[in-house]
Design goal:
Number of helices: 12
Distance between the termini: 55 Å
Strand content: 15-25%
Mean pLDDT: 77
Oligomer: single chain
Shape: elongated
Length: 413
């Protein structure tokens, strides 16, 4: 059996299309189909160019003043969400308290820990202090630490070495760990460099074949077994620190030692000790520069409030992005026919503002009420600069038409 032979003749097609007896309805269908194809092509080009331009713009954005624009991209929409939510919140007092040790030597720190342990009833005390080498105060300091450790609510800092290919291999402990087996929690922050914006934390870190608890997680283990068992399921993934939720009070260690501040304010609280005014221990956060002990305090408060933020799936972001591109390209095609000069640009800019504000408000709502982080940085940038891609595409098309007309005009002459 032979298949029938088909032959496409463009001249024959034109004769049929322009024949007097050719149905006008068929011609209208042909024109509609042609318009649909052109529209799909325009939309595809607009989506592609908008995505490329947005990636180029987002690549150079950073919230860190020490970053080099163009080489260090450190921007997240969550930073905007957190900043807005923090300004709106009526902060409640947290169960976490920070005690500053600024201006205290090691003997004073030992006396402070002893007083807090003996004269008050904190749930747990975490020491965000790194004791690297021994000194002359250790004759009194080590026995004081041993006495406080007998109460079972003291956590000493440990530190992970610099990661090799993203993985930690060893854990460093304070020098006196060899004498007293303290409960330890690592004080490492979830960032590759100290110049990054500190927006995430981990409950535990993988070190070789085993896992090491972070300082906040170890404090919860000692204070609340039920909550610890529940949070243990989080594993070693990164989670967002929810900064706006509560107000964390800071007390001076000097004033507690001198009696100016009643030590009873620490009763039934999670207490973190550390430097609060040491510039070398400050890091960038969505709320500005903040000492490391405060970042640990907010991470601990996030766990206590069980504010575990989950990221929205990537396909949702891409779906929103493509729908926005199609919407704005369609509107641009229709509004190009407006005869009033400037009306198209005015309408499109108003729509841009409305959609951007709506997306940000929706993202804030999802983060605050549903604990879901919707990263709309990509869709928002596409809205902001998406019309530029349409202007480029349609500008090239108009330029092509002008050139063709001039060539045809030249040929006729």
């Amino acid at each position: 059996m032979e298949w029938p032979k088909f032959r496409f003749d463009i001249k024959q097609l034109k004769q049929r299309l322009w024949h007097p007896d050719f149905s006008k309805l068929h011609f209208e269908r042909f024109r509609i189909r042609t318009s649909v194809v052109q529209f799909v092509i325009n939309v595809c080009l607009a989506v592609l160019l908008s995505c490329l331009l947005s990636i180029f713009v987002l690549k150079g954005l950073s919230l860190s003043p020490t970053s080099n624009i163009g080489s260090n991209s450190d921007f997240e929409m969550s930073d905007i969400y957190i900043k807005i939510l923090d300004s709106r919140y009526c902060h409640k007092l947290s169960d976490v308290i920070v005690v500053g040790i600024d201006g205290l030597n090691r003997r004073d720190v030992g006396n402070l820990v002893e007083k807090m342990t003996m004269c008050s009833s904190p749930k747990v005390i975490g020491m965000d202090i790194w004791f690297k080498e021994p000194n002359s105060c250790d004759v009194d300091f080590i026995p004081q630490m041993k006495l406080c450790d007998d109460y079972g609510n003291l956590v000493i800092a440990s530190m992970l070495n610099d990661p090799i290919k993203g993985e930690y291999t060893t854990v460093e402990y304070s020098f006196f760990q060899q004498f007293i087996p303290f409960n330890t929690g690592t004080i490492n922050l979830d960032a590759s460099t100290r110049y990054e914006v500190m927006r995430n934390f981990k409950t535990e870190f993988k070190v070789g074949d085993h896992k090491v608890s972070s300082m906040p997680m170890e404090m919860i283990r000692l204070a609340d077994d039920t909550l610890y068992d529940k949070l243990k399921k989080l594993g070693d993934k990164s989670y967002m620190i929810y900064y706006p939720d509560s107000k964390i009070e800071i007390y001076s260690g000097k004033e507690i030692l001198s009696g100016k501040t009643d030590v009873s304010v620490l009763d039934d609280k999670y207490v973190l000790m550390g430097d609060v005014n040491l510039m070398s221990d400050c890091f960038m956060t969505p709320l500005g520069s903040m000492p490391g002990v405060m970042i640990h305090a907010y991470a601990l408060n996030t766990l206590l409030e069980q504010r575990i933020i989950h990221n929205s799936p990537d396909f949702v972001v891409w779906l929103v992005t493509i729908l926005i591109c199609i919407l704005f390209t369609t509107l641009d095609l229709f509004l190009r026919k407006l005869t009033i000069r400037g009306a198209k640009f005015f309408i499109m800019r108003i729509l841009q503002g409305i959609v951007i504000i709506s997306l940000i408000v929706f993202g804030i709502h999802m983060l605050d009420s549903k604990s879901i982080y919707l990263n709309i940085a990509f869709p928002t940038s596409i809205i902001a600069i998406g019309l530029l891609s349409n202007d480029i595409i349609f500008g090239c098309y108009d330029l092509y038409q002008i050139i063709v007309k001039q060539i045809n005009k030249y040929k006729k002459s």
